[in-house]
Amino acid sequence: MAALRKCSWAVLVLTNLAVFATATDENLLFNPLKSKDLNDFVSPPFVRVVYFFKGELPLQQPDRFLLNFKQASDILEDYGVKTATLHCKNEAMNEYCSRKHSVAESVFIFRGGNLLLEIQLASMFNIDAIVSNILQMVMLGEVPIVSDEEKLQQIMDMNKGKQDVLYSYQRAVGTLEHRVFMEVAFVYSNQYAFALSTSTEVARLISSTDVRHPTIWYLQCKSVSPMDASTKSCPVLRYTGPINLETFSKYMKLISMPNVLDFQESMLTKSEFDDLQVHRAYIFTDAASYKSTQALTAELGSHFIGSMVFLIVNVNKLPTYVVKQLGYGSQVTEVPSAAFRSYGSNNLEYMSVKFTETNIRNFLKHVLDTFNEETMDERLYTDNHPIFEVPPQEIQDDPVAEDAYLIRNKKFNTTSIPALTDKTFPAMLSEKNLFLVMFYVQWDPRTQVFMEHYAEAGRMLEHMTSDNTSPLARVNCADWPDVCEKNDVIRYPTFILFKNHKRMSEYQDRLDTMTVVKFVSLHLQQNPVTLTTKAEVTQFLEGGMASTGMYVLVLGLFKEKDTEELKAFATVASDLRHRFMFGIMKGGSLAEGTAQYFGTGLSSVVIIKEQDKDEGFTVLKDDLTQGNIAKFIEESSLPVFPALEPENFVALRSLKKPFVILFFSVDNSKVEVRKVMTEMAKSRQFNDFVLCYMEVGMNSNSMGSFILHSYIDEPSLPTIVTVNHDNGKLYNYPMGNDFSKQSISKWLQGISSGKAGLQTGELKDGKWKPLLPAYDFLAMIDSEEAEYRKEVEESMGGGRIPSRSGGTAPKPIPMPTSEPGTPPQPSIHTEL
């Protein structure tokens, strides 16, 4: 900055605008490389990952990727993967930095000096996605992706007689469950074969039931002889525990250990299975029947592997006090016999029927079923015996609840969002000048899914406060309903901002980490701010979080006499201060010099959009009324030619204009059309439309590909589609490969004027109906009623019984009479 102060003010502003785009992003770079060191870094025969930073990121939230990438790198290092970043700012001659297409849109994976793959940032949306995608590349040979039945059969045939296979269905690569599977595969790939598929069709080849969620199967191929032509498939067991790292790792330890052992005296107090939370089956035998019992137990062990261990209790070899403690002589009077003990319990449940293979299988299945029903703790069964089937109506139409279920066992740090009580809430209100409180109930799915992101926002905000503590907190309304009632909480979750020891406003924006950070940080600083010195202007343009692109800056440039315009601007700033950073300059050479740089004069409003690489700023200089200023900010704060994404769809749709969507692939040679449409958007010639784009990646399941195919059955790239969401009309670009500005303009003018023959289709009927019929509660009541009547009638010998909901009175039941001189007979009770 010392050098900048020596420059003229115009140069100062120009330099600020050039550098504030990368100031904070650069601070997030880690393990920095120079071009001269790149070859040495990627040449070892191990996986190396490099991100080439070009000063900006093609994302709505640029720092989010870099933060995730840095945290993921710490995890990947445990698996021998090293990561680095290379800043292209001073490395323009680097082979990758000099590429024509945006090298910053991908992460590059190397091994032995060779480029293995480029993964687009769109696939690296969080830490789980980064870790799992990269581990998949590291272990592509060890964990192949199965695409058809032939490939699956090859994997089974290859491992018959050698090793067992862990095979998984994943809804997509890059999910939490995929990461768990890959991390476990990395540890156990020397003992087992691993494979996965993202196709439900392939998954159905293994499963006898429909597969809707990530699932893992244990294929016991080692026990199958490769010479046995009659056995095509390997025996299949389904892992039905939660797919998290802790539980699945314990399961892998269990199947890697012998699960049939001779009981030892020492096992009364301590065994190697205590830490694995595993059930135990005790098989009682004597010396005479030991061999036959051992053979049967081995078969049982194979059938129940992963869910319990089998301990053979030889009553002739163990001390008397040991077998007595296990119930021999009291509960067990003859051998062979069996008992079961669930983990966490000191009580044994004994089999009371004859000891046969069928009976013991049924006994163990029954006690496991009972345990799982009571604890809802899923364990391993064969695929033909699912433990608990959730009715499809329960999960058909709520993806948030489904995500909440999938992460139900995930643990995360909540120290940045302290839980408040009826005592600590008023204490914090009196102590803190500003804090945001999340009022919630634990059973709410949105709360469950967002809580981790809320905690992450708290950690990010800690360094922005004067005392380096998080300005976020939470109140569980199930525990402290009085606190929630006093704050008028009527829905969950509710977010209330308290400032200067009183309620200020509700947060009603997206449940997203960076959006919460933006909201709170805007309130942590003065906003709007009056700028009177060069230093204050410099700080406004490049200081704090503004440099990350998190904020859109709104600068009001006024003459001293612009009282009405200034009043209108101040009102809009007060209304929108939770979304934008506002600055005000009034009169003088400083304001005039700033206005001159932006190509305008005083009595203007300038929107500065650091993250919009196509249009850094835009100006409003006519008719500065409150309504015009607010409308200008709402429309012009968006990127001039944005990527259409879930994060900005609501904002773009709120403009109530048809979308003109360019679909293209970064690998397509005709991406020049993107430049053409960018210039058209900047010209404001087609303000009646929202011009935007979507990338269509190689993955046919990508969002861009899915949306494009809903418009066009067999599209070619690039192409343009105009969508009018209000009337449902679709217009596919008809000019073939002619993507000139003149042709596109003529087409849009025709659509705008209602020219006949341009419409090519309509959006599908947008009724959001359930996929399945709802529960028929009346039929369920009738069914229960029929069962009830049948049971009672059978117990009464066929007497007519009324319905519980009313109806005919019951027939009187004849009561026996007492003969004279005989004692009265007891009453016959017919309680129903």
Automatic annotation (TrEMBL):
The keyword Signal appears for this protein: yes
InterPro entries xref list: Thioredoxin-like_sf, Thioredoxin_domain, TXNDC16, TXNDC16_2nd, TXNDC16_N
Location of the TXNDC16 second thioredoxin-like domain: 138-258
Residue ranges annotated for the Thioredoxin domain, each copy included: 419-520
Domain annotation TXNDC16 N-terminal: ranges: 33-135
Biased composition (Pro residues): 811-826
Recorded superkingdom: Eukaryota
Positions of the UniProt region annotated as Disordered: 789-832
Signal sequence, start to end: 1-23
Alphabetized Pfam families for the sequence: Thioredoxin, Thioredoxin_6, TXNDC16_2nd, TXNDC16_N
SUPFAM superfamilies xref list: Thioredoxin-like
Keyword annotations of the record: Signal
Name this polypeptide is given: Thioredoxin domain-containing protein 16-like
